[in-house]
Design goal:
Layout (H helix, E strand, L loop, with lengths): L1 H40 L2 H11 L2 H24 L6 H22 L13 H24 L2 H9 L1 H13 L5 H19 L6 H28 L3 H23 L11 H27 L2 H6 L1 H16 L5 H32 L14 H15 L1
């Protein structure tokens, strides 16, 4: 290779070595980045930092908004157009699919590590899994028997319930203005639901029964993620088996018989599977949103979802709630808007209070040598 080196010359050889060195440094930097991300996933604190870094409140809530609107339309289509009249079994398919996907993530080594069992007792995880089964199962049952508008109005009623539950469980006080706004929301929800032309008594009872477990579910998700260093995926992995167990127990009570005799052709099975994938994304995005924000802020996002979902229900499923019910919807959304404004104002005031007050630097007093010596003499005994 001597003749090749002589043709290249000394400068060319230095240039090639420099490029090789740069490529080696870039490769080492990439390997270090991969290693640091992998190591972060090996600890619950590191995984939590990764989730907060790449999925802030705006990303999490936008993700949750898109998936929430999509799955409501998909589930209503499965039950209304496909004719799948088994809402609890549909929820069970959602959670089994989610657990299988999480098992694949765990096999590939990308599932974040769960915190120590000492920090979060099994009873808390068991309670969350059980409440989640009732919240998700009753939600789909309500969507099956009610119109999309009625279903969404019942979801808005979760916000006052969360505030009441946080007051009872955690003694969390709320200003009078917020109480007044939530009272307006409650009145609007009552008017919109009772006067719905597609009112169904059994569906209404299911919707009322769903409100409390839904509120408790959101509070537990938010508290465990924000106080226990749980990531969304790790918490889903731990609680999904409990949820599946309770959904199996709910099936004989709320689902009609005949799920095995359903026409499981390619089109119907594809629609149900697509709904299940959206169910996994909904659970994940909801957990991300609750981990990045509070339970109340997550539900307040529902007012914009309500507008989109009501329009979608009217366009896709020919839903006709009636004029008085529409007035109730407007009243409820107005109350939610006032409540959101008060929340944002309170958050801004709290942020301003946390800002450090910038004081101008005080001028240093001029001292002579004698004062300096005296100062040193006074400080010396304190050091000894």
């Amino acid at each position: 290779m001597g003749w090749f080196d002589s043709l290249l010359g000394g400068e060319a050889r230095k240039f090639i070595k420099r490029k090789d060195s740069d490529a080696g440094e870039a490769g080492r930097a990439l390997e270090e980045l991969r290693g640091s991300m992998y190591n972060d996933l090996r600890t619950s604190e590191g995984a939590k930092r990764q989730q907060q870094r790449y999925c802030g409140p705006l990303v999490a809530m936008s993700f949750n908004f898109l998936v929430s609107v999509g799955i409501i339309m998909a589930n209503k289509s499965v039950m209304a157009r496909v004719g799948f009249n088994f809402p609890i079994f549909l929820t069970l398919v959602h959670y089994v699919t989610a657990w299988l996907l999480l098992a694949i993530f765990k096999t590939l080594g990308v599932l974040p590590v769960s915190p120590s069992s000492k920090t979060t007792p099994f009873s808390s995880l068991f309670a969350l899994g059980a409440v989640m089964a009732f919240a998700s199962g009753l939600a789909n049952t309500s969507l099956h028997y009610n119109s999309v508008g009625f279903y969404q109005m019942a979801k808005i009623a979760v916000t006052p319930t969360i505030v009441l539950a946080e007051f009872i469980l955690f003694r969390k006080n709320i200003p009078f203005k917020k109480v007044l706004a939530l009272a307006v929301v409650s009145v609007g929800v009552a008017v919109a639901t009772v006067t719905d032309l597609e009112f169904n008594l059994f569906g209404a009872l299911i919707a009322v029964a769903w409100i409390i477990p839904s509120a408790v579910n959101k509070i537990l998700w938010s508290n465990l993620q924000q106080q226990g260093n749980w990531t969304a995926l790790a918490l889903m992995w731990k609680t999904t088996p409990v949820t599946v167990f309770f959904l199996v127990a709910l099936m004989p009570w709320l689902d009609p018989p005949g799920v095995l005799s359903f026409n499981w052709n390619v089109n119907n099975s594809g629609a149900i599977l697509f709904s299940a994938l959206l169910g996994f994304l909904l659970q994940w995005s909801g957990a991300l949103a609750l981990g990045a924000t509070s339970a109340t802020s997550h539900v307040v996002l529902g007012q914009f979802k309500t507008c989109v979902i009501l329009v979608g229900g009217y366009l896709l499923f020919n839903s006709d709630p009636g004029f008085v019910s529409v007035v109730g919807v407007v009243v409820a959304l107005s109350g939610m808007s006032v409540y959101t404004s008060l929340n944002m104002q309170e958050s801004q005031e709290g942020f301003n209070k946390q800002l450090p007050k910038q004081m101008p630097p005080s001028p240093k007093p001029k001292t002579n040598n004698a004062d300096s010596v005296e100062s040193n003499i006074k400080i010396t005994p304190a050091v000894v």
